[in-house]
Amino acid sequence: MTKFRTLIILIFATIIIGCNSDKSKNNLESENINHTEKKTDTLTKHLKPFKADLPTIGLLMYNGVLQSEIIATSDVFAKPTEDGKQLFNVVSIAETENPITTEEGMHFVPDYTFENCPKLTALFIPSAYDMYAQVHNDKIVDFIKKKNQETEFTVSNCAGAQLIGKSGIADGHKIVTWIGGGEQLQKEYPNLKVQNDSLVTFVEDGKFSSSNGNLASYIAALNLLEKMTSSQHRKFVESYLYLDRLQKWKE
Fold first, then answer.
1. Residue 210: predicted pLDDT
2. Dihedral sign, CA of 182, 187, 189, 190?
3. Domain 56-247, architecture per CATH
4. What is the band of 244 on the pLDDT scale with cuts at 50, 70, 90?
5. pLDDT for 246
6. What is the C-alpha to C-alpha distance for residues 166 and 232, in angstroms, rounded to an integer?
7. By mean pLDDT, which of 2-16, 156-170, 209-223 is the weakest?
8. How confident is the model over 157-172, as a mean pLDDT?
9. Where in the chain are the domains?
10. DSSP state string for the chain
């Protein structure tokens, strides 16, 4: 009888331990699921959905691009209204789907390639310190020509003006480039009306606008933002970006 009682106790102990083990396992699995959900939410909650009814701002990218000129435009156009409404699709485009490496060494993954790029309302063309490879890349130049047929606005920053010149889309229009680059730009592309980059930071002529680049890219983006929205929204975005602090930083 004693042996039987001992056997019963051992059986119950085994069942209890097994149940507790199952509970622990279930709790651990539940925690892992919750952790995965939280991790996924962290990764996805900032993604902006592509809305076909919104204007689309395209940011051209390529290896060696100055990342400030990509960031400036996305900084400005990705900001919502004061009540949180999305106003634009902001997408990046490169020749292939492979990550590009900026001049500063960061890796950016394009949203679209030249082949599947959606219709653009505006195309921003940035620069690199050495534009030889880009200017002699027929696929980039042809993409700019093709997209210019559908865009309402085409913007270049810094030496991106060289791609504008190479494409021929702005012949007869005013343009400005990086400080010190105007004379060479005019020589290479005589059909452009190159402005004095020592005096001119930003210029607009019809659908085309351009800037000296780098942080001056914010000027080009903000100018177009106001044109596409309102002066009130521009002021809101400027305050969102603390641009007033940048202007007064020496005080």
1. 98
2. positive
3. 3-Layer(aba) Sandwich (3.40)
4. confident
5. 76
6. 36
7. 2-16
8. 98
9. 56-247
10. -HHHHHHHHHHHHHHHHHHHHHHHHHHHHHHHHHHHHHHHHHHHTTPPPP-TTS-EEEEE--TTB-HHHHHHHHHHHT---TT-----EEEEEESSSSPEE-TTS-EE--SEETTTPPP-SEEEE--BS--HHHHT-HHHHHHHHHHHTT-SEEEEETTHHHHHHHHTTTTTSEE--STT-HHHHHHH-TTSEE--TTT-SEEEETTEEEE--GGGHHHHHHHHHHHHS-HHHHHHHHHHTTHHHHHTTT-
Checking if the pLDDT of 200 tops 50, the result is: yes
Please report, as a single letter, which amino acid is at residue 129.
Answer: Y
Alpha-carbon span 69 to 61, nearest angstrom: 10
Instruction: State the residue for tokens 């700019």.
Output: 144
